[in-house]
């Protein structure tokens, strides 16, 4: 880690994290500003599909929350359950 131009992750990713070889504070800040907004799971030693699994779980949790917060009525429109109504509404709004 203390060698010049040390790279933390040798696996191919879209960004190579390294320590800049400079004593100037501003150059460190400039280097930090080049970091990607979203890190790849590979740099943490995870499989690339870990991000996909995380996003899928977050989507399911969001949809579950939406269904749970829908008003509970004694009768539903057209004999459809609340889940079916929410699913259809989301499909119409999100899918072309």
Descriptive notes:
- The protein is mostly helical and 96 residues long.
- The chain folds into two domains: 39 residues, no CATH class; 48 residues.
- Helices cover 44% and strands 0% of the residues.
- The chain contains three helices and no strands.
- The chain is elongated.
- The mean pLDDT is 79.
Radius of gyration: 23 Å
Largest sheet: none
Cα(first) to Cα(last) distance is 50 Å
Question: What is the residue-mean pLDDT, rounded to a whole number?
Answer: 79
Going by helix content, strand content and strand pairing, the class is mainly alpha
Along the chain, the helix and strand elements come as: HHH
In which range does the helix fraction lie? 40-55%
Low-confidence stretches: none
